[in-house]
Write a structure and sequence with these properties.
Number of helices: 4
CATH class: Alpha Beta
Helix content: 10-25%
CATH superfamily: Endonuclease/exonuclease/phosphatase
CATH topology: Deoxyribonuclease I, Chain A
Radius of gyration: 20 Å
Number of domains: 1
Order of helices and strands: EEHEHEEEEEEEHEHEEEEEEEEE
CATH architecture: 4-Layer Sandwich
Distance between the termini: 38 Å
Shape: globular
């Protein structure tokens, strides 16, 4: 898998961890909550596809319906959308999560407007946004914990960049390093099987990164999160007729189908590695050259999903964790929740999608929340 760094923007307030050199962007007029008077005991992480958060400036990369003036989009709708997003982000959990991963944010301008005005006083002193050229929407991160490093990884297929880059952020949290990958993989527009190689390519980027970590990085908690546009049981949904980007850990070493040019090796043009998933932390790790991550979706719970397509619930938004979240060394996985409160649901009980023309709704995705405990 060819992995390249793409441009990404990182916007930090006040200070950075000692010894870490990062490009910085100043923020004037920001107001933050006072510093914590004691070490926090836990950490909450939220991932949320906010559904098309565009600003009111014509950059030439917008979807047609979000071009200011000609597309019907305007400043009033932009600020209404910001208000709706901030309403969700400040309510769940109460006062907002410590780290927020966002998908479908247009650019740095949008993120800074959200952070410094609509989330003002929320303590989000650190932020980062991918800066992929000629791309309508980006991924972004807001954090109360120091962001110590930011990278953007290009996804390639047959030598060509495809889809959106993967935004990698390292944090200093609970006295320990934490690494998060904010993802927004290729959608199924064009057909699930036809677009699967694009998602396999993205999974392969992550598999390569996780498998090449140095010995001193092996104990670092790593979280892959975001809208993967892939159900946690995608392989089973297609009766195993072709390999998928997310594969059940039970299929390691077994025939996983050839329908999309997949198979156990190759098929995406580069490394072609899938990510394997399990509902047991004991399975997480590198097994026979394959990366296995823990998925809370597979660990029980009665959640129907985070997204609905034509009246059918899907589990396409994810938290995937490595085994270091259960090693009793500092940052421990505690719980997982789909934010399915009635506020975010329509009259039929599905996500209340954002409909600009009617000035209503929030997003066609529901947020996911992860809670961790710090062990000192």
């Amino acid at each position: 898998m060819i992995i390249e760094k793409r441009r990404c923007r990182q916007i930090f307030g006040i200070s950075l961890a000692v010894g870490v050199l990062l490009s910085m962007y100043s923020c004037s007029g920001c107001s933050f909550l006072p510093e914590r008077s004691a070490e926090p005991e836990n950490c909450t992480i939220l991932t949320y596809n906010v559904q098309n958060l565009f600003d009111d400036v014509n950059d030439g990369t917008e979807y047609d319906e979000f071009i200011p003036a000609t597309g019907g989009w305007n400043s009033g709708l932009f600020h209404l959308k910001l208000q709706r997003v901030s309403e969700v982000l400040t309510r769940f959990p109460g006062g907002g999560a410590d780290i927020i991963l966002l998908q479908e944010v247009e650019n740095e301008n949008v993120l800074e407007m959200l952070r410094t005005h609509y989330l003002k006083g929320g303590g989000y002193r650190y932020s980062a946004v991918s800066d992929a050229p000629d791309t309508a929407v980006q991924t972004a991160v807001l954090s109360r914990f120091p962001i110590t490093q930011v990278k953007a990884h290009t996804v390639t297929l047959n030598g060509q960049a495809v889809g959106r880059p993967i935004l990698e952020c390292s944090f200093e949290a609970g006295g320990r390093k934490l690494v998060l990958f904010c993802c927004h993989w290729k959608s199924k527009s064009g057909g699930a099987e036809n677009t699967e190689p694009d998602r396999i390519a993205a999974a392969g980027v992550l598999a390569d990164i996780l498998q090449t970590k140095s010995a001193d990085e092996a104990s670092v908690p790593v979280l892959v999160a975001g809208d993967l546009n892939e159900c946690i049981d995608e392989w089973e949904l297609h009766s195993g007729t072709y390999r998928t980007a997310l594969m059940p850990a039970s299929r390691i070493g077994a025939d996983v189908g050839e329908g999309n040019g997949g198979g156990n090796t190759g098929g995406s043009g580069e490394s072609g590695k899938s990510l394997f998933v399990s509902g047991e932390f004991d399975d997480a790790g590198i097994h026979d050259g394959h990366t296995v991550l823990f998925s809370p979706w597979l660990a029980g719970g009665n959640y129907q999903g985070s997204y609905a397509y034509r009246g059918t619930w899907e589990k396409i938004d994810h938290f995937l964790l490595n085994g270091c979240f259960k090693d009793s060394m500092g940052i421990e996985y505690d719980s997982f929740r789909v934010i399915d409160d009635t506020l975010l649901l329509d009259d039929e009980g599905y996500p209340a999608r954002w409909i600009p023309d009617l000035e209503r709704g929030y997003s066609d995705h529901l947020p996911l929340m992860l809670s961790c405990t710090f062990l000192y």
